[in-house]
Amino acid sequence: MATDATPSTPSASELASGARRLDPALSSVEFHVPHFWGLITVKGHFERYEGTLDLQSEPAVELTIEAESLQTGNRKRDQHLRSADFFDVEHHPQIRFVSETAALEDTALKVRGRLHAAGRSIPLELDATVRSVEGGVEIEAITHAPHHELGMTWSPLGMARPRSTLIVKGRLVRNERNGT
């Protein structure tokens, strides 16, 4: 992700001054899953998603991902991840995170909410770093999700570790849809 200027701390009023959305051209949604008893890590990303941040609305943070857009660089593995053993994209085409609380302190955004995937929902907390840059605000959020609690338990010989790392990096720009 390229930056246009030296990052600085966004003011609370700057972030609270209206809705922002992830710019897909300058953002990414990735996942890392330890596999083979933790000796290797399967990395992947989603190609289609939308995200918003609006500290003056409920929910303050929302991320919607098209589950079928997942890519790991291995076609056969991607098909399996889209199957009922994992994301079950036929019956549950979207993955969603919806915040319940969001608090900004300096450059730290602390968020609690629910992750909805594969027909289940789990509580999730994440810490994000936000920085002002020319043209918007950059965000980097990292959390760990217990995918077993989402029903994603398929693992030959227990090779997959029970927690995935989810990473959202990107540029938040003014939400033009709402005119803000």
Helices and strands, with pairings:
Layout: H1 12-15, E1 20-22, E2 28-35, E3 40-46, E4 49-53, E5 61-66, E6 70-71, H2 75-82, E7 94-105, E8 108-117, E9 120-133, E10 136-145, E11 164-174
Descriptive overview:
There is one protein chain. This protein is mostly beta strands. It has a single domain, classed as Lipocalin (Beta Barrel), CATH 2.40.128.110. 7% of the residues lie in helices and 49% in strands. It has an eight-stranded antiparallel beta barrel.
Helix percentage: under 10%
CATH class: Mainly Beta
Give the termini distance in whole angstroms. 24 Å
Largest sheet: 8 strands, antiparallel, barrel
Q: Per CATH, what is the topology?
A: Lipocalin
Which ranges are low-confidence, i.e. pLDDT below 50, for 5 or more consecutive residues? 1-5
Spatial order of the strands forming the largest sheet:
1-4-5-7-8-9-10-11
How many helices? The count is 2
Main structural class:
mainly beta
Identify the CATH architecture: Beta Barrel
Mean pLDDT: 84
Rounded to the nearest angstrom, the radius of gyration is 17 Å
In one word, what is the shape? globular
CATH superfamily: Lipid/polyisoprenoid-binding, YceI-like
Oligomer: single chain
Number of strands: 11
Strand content: over 45%
Q: How many structural domains can be distinguished in the coordinates?
A: 1
Order of helices and strands: HEEEEEEHEEEEE
